[in-house]
C-alpha cells in the first residue's frame, strides 16, 4: 500500500476521532462517548499496526492543543489503546468475534485501572473518589431505609473492595458496541465478518469452574477484612466470576427454551425474575453446573 493511502486513512481516522471528541460537548455525548475507540479499530483492522502511529500522534497533539485536561487525555489513551488492540485482533485471520470482544474488554479494563493508578500518583483522585463514594452510599442507605430494606444492604467496605472487578461490567458496552458497528463498516468494505455465537450457545470454558472454587477458598481463608492485595484479588475474582456464572445460567436457560422450541421472549421474564435473590442463586448454581459438567451435551443427545 502506498504512503499516500496510509496518510489519507490516517487523516480520516484523526478527523473521525476529533469529531467524536467535539460531540462530547453536545447532547450527542450520551451516544458518541461509547464509540471513541471506533476510529482506531477501523484503522488497524484495515491497515495493521504499523500505520496506526501517525493518527495516534495526530490525535494526541489535537487533544493537547484543544483540551489539555486529564479527563480528555485519559479518554484519548483509553480509546486509542482499546480500539487499536481490537482492530489488530479483528485483522487476524483465525480470530473470532468472541476474541475481538474479549480482547477489547480485557484491554479496556487494564487500561482504565492503569490510568486511575497513574492519576492517583499526581492528584488526590482517591481522596475525591472516596468522598463521592461516602455521599452516594449515604443516599443509598436513605433510599433503602425509606423502603424498609436497610438491613439487606451489604457493608460499605465489602462493596468498595469489589468495585475494581465490577468495572469490567461497566466497560462491556465499549467492545460490544464498537465491534458491532465496526464489523458492519468493515464488511461493506470487503473485509470478512467476525461473529459472536448465539447467546444460547455461549459457555464459559471449564477451567472457570475450578478457578471459581479456588477463588472462593482464597476469599474465605486468605481474606482478613483489610485492604491487603491478596484479599482484594480474591474478592474481585469471586465477585466477577459470580456475575459470569449468572450470565451462564441465563445462557443455559436460553438453551433449554431453544431445545423445547419455546419463544425467546420467555427470557425477558427470566431476567426480570433474576432480581429475586432466590432466583439469582438458582441461576448462578445452574451456570456453575452447565460449566463444570456435560449436562448440556447429554440434553442434546436425548433430542
Automatic annotation (TrEMBL):
Q: Which UniProt keywords are given for this protein, alphabetically ordered?
A: Membrane, Transmembrane, Transmembrane helix
Q: Which InterPro entries match?
A: DUF2232
Please tell me whether the keyword Metal-binding is annotated for this protein.
Answer: no
Ranges annotated as spanning the membrane: 12-36, 48-67, 73-90, 102-122, 162-186, 207-225, 237-257, 266-289
Any Pfam family? DUF2232
- UniProt protein name: DUF2232 domain-containing protein
**Which source organism does the UniProt entry give?**
Salinithrix halophila
Amino acid at each position: 500500500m502506498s504512503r499516500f493511502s496510509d496518510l489519507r486513512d490516517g487523516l480520516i481516522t484523526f478527523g473521525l476521532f476529533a469529531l467524536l471528541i467535539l460531540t462530547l460537548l453536545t447532547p450527542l455525548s450520551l451516544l458518541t462517548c461509547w464509540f471513541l475507540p471506533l476510529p482506531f479499530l477501523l484503522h488497524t483492522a484495515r491497515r495493521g499496526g504499523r500505520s496506526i502511529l501517525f493518527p495516534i500522534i495526530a490525535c494526541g497533539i489535537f487533544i493537547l492543543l484543544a483540551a489539555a485536561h486529564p479527563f480528555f487525555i485519559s479518554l484519548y489513551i483509553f480509546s486509542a489503546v482499546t480500539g487499536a488492540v481490537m482492530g489488530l485482533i479483528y485483522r487476524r485471520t483465525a480470530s473470532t468475534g468472541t476474541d475481538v470482544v474479549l480482547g477489547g474488554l480485557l484491554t479496556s479494563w487494564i487500561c482504565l485501572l492503569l490510568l486511575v493508578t497513574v492519576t492517583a500518583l499526581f492528584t488526590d483522585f482517591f481522596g475525591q473518589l472516596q468522598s463521592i463514594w461516602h455521599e452516594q452510599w449515604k443516599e443509598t442507605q436513605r433510599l433503602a431505609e425509606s423502603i424498609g430494606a436497610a438491613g439487606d444492604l451489604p457493608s460499605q467496605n465489602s462493596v468498595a473492595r469489589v468495585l475494581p472487578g465490577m468495572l469490567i461490567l461497566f466497560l462491556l458496552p465499549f467492545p460490544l458496541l464498537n465491534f458491532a458497528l465496526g464489523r458492519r463498516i468493515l464488511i461493506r468494505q470487503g473485509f470478512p465478518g467476525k461473529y459472536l455465537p448465539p447467546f444460547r450457545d455461549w459457555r464459559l470454558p471449564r477451567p472457570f469452574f475450578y478457578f471459581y472454587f479456588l477463588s472462593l477458598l482464597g476469599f474465605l481463608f486468605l481474606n482478613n477484612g483489610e485492604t491487603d492485595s491478596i484479599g482484594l484479588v480474591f474478592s474481585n475474582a469471586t465477585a466477577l466470576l459470580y456475575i459470569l456464572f449468572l450470565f451462564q445460567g441465563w445462557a443455559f436457560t436460553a438453551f433449554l427454551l431453544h431445545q423445547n422450541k419455546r419463544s425467546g421472549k420467555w427470557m425477558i421474564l427470566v431476567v426480570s425474575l433474576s432480581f429475586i435473590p432466590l432466583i439469582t442463586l438458582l441461576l448462578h448454581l445452574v451456570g456453575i453446573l452447565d460449566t463444570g459438567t456435560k449436562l448440556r451435551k447429554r440434553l442434546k443427545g436425548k433430542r
